[in-house]
Automatic annotation (TrEMBL):
Assembly and binders: Homodimer.
Name of the protein in question: Diaminopimelate decarboxylase
Cofactor: pyridoxal 5'-phosphate
Pathway it works in: Amino-acid biosynthesis; L-lysine biosynthesis via DAP pathway; L-lysine from DL-2,6-diaminopimelate: step 1/1
Annotated source species: Candidatus Avoscillospira stercorigallinarum
Top-level class of the enzyme under EC nomenclature: lyase
Function: Specifically catalyzes the decarboxylation of meso-diaminopimelate (meso-DAP) to L-lysine.
Matching InterPro entries: Ala_racemase/Decarboxylase_C, DAP_deCOOHase_LysA, De-COase2_N, Orn/DAP/Arg_de-COase, PLP-binding_barrel
Amino acid sequence: MLSSNLTVGENGHLFFRGHDTVALAAEYGTPLYLLDEVRIRENMRMYRRAFQESFGPGSAPLYASKANCFKRIYEIAREEGMGIDVVSSGEIYTAMQAGFPLENAWFHSNNKTDWDIAFAMDQGVGHFVVDNREELDAIARIAGEKGKTQKILLRLTPGIDPHTYEAVATGKVDSKFGTAIETGQAKEMVAYTLSLPTIELEGFHCHVGSQVFGEDVYERTSDIMLEFIRECRDRFHVPLPVLDLGGGYGVRYVDRDGEVDIPAAISRVARHMQQACARLDMAMPQVHMEPGRSIVADAGLTLYTVGTVKKITGYKNYVSVDGGMTDNPRYALYGSAYTVLLADRPEAKPDLRCDVVGRCCESGDIVQPDVDLPEPRRGEILAVCTTGAYNYSMASNYNRLPRPATVMLTEDRAYVAVRRESLEDLVRNDI
Ligand SMILES: *Cc1c(COP(=O)(O)O)cnc(C)c1O
């Protein structure tokens, strides 16, 4: 099986974290997001331990909460001692509702509105990650109006191509995110930032991309960032102690994907950085990373009920499910690969090659093309694996489909963490 939380029960059904998925579909309805709470906590602890061992005090992983955002997950992050990344007032509000201590939140986004900035400051968000000069001016002005000094990191683009998909590569010079080092604009930004009395510059941030497997991506990134910090130290005589290397470690969606040994990878980055700092005669910064996908992806599984099985003789076969691009837009957006299993009979011999498609009025509404399945019957349950990241958080109400519920699983318990949207929910804001 793709992941150790997937097993086959004695009744032949697919089990997830020890629970019968067919029984869960019957109890909670479909489409249904399942989230393995045990795995989320394991992943958070794995990062925390790796950071303690490799980087020492002051360094910490932050959960990039855009990957999957709802109240319960912020409670879990708080319980596990994780910091968080947030990218909007909506995420900040959700974290507040969960009692998350916002001094331990880092506020991202390439275009924070004045309203967002004021809201985040009023709620006490600890750190802003500033994308560009206009935004910096707005933050400095609003901090001034509130009589505050705001701690920030400057987001820089180190000019690294992480060899991932184009749509999720973000660290190249021409990216929409951040300020480029190569063009000299980053250096100018630092000088300008240091002139602003309401801003405290803690250091720098970069994020080169997502679903990164490339061996030395973070080493190469840290080389560029450390050199830049060293140049700033020499020129401006300020410490700039924080370096945030962003998120992005890849996860396994299908058998052919590699697997990143994250603690080993972090330990290699740390050793590389210690050597670089010695060579550059500088102190090792406090390091942050912001994993999203690698915290929650393999904790997720989506269940659907099979509807129409359509065979177009001589052409292709379609298996339609009761969800689709509304609950998982990732194939439509990026052509993402997924593993699909027939939850009723995961070990039956595959005898049908088909496209698994959704119920939306859109030809691109494909969950996954070219899947080999035991021919499913109407009413059977299909499971799509590794859907914990960027599924619920990207879900929409296209075609007025209600968003699915999220059911969390522990070893001995299943509980609803996000209720299924009702038809009434869909018209709640219609006047
Ligand atoms: C999306 C994003 C992350 C998380 O990336 P993952 O691939 O989910 O680990 C971290 N930092 C920033 C700035 C991001 O935009």
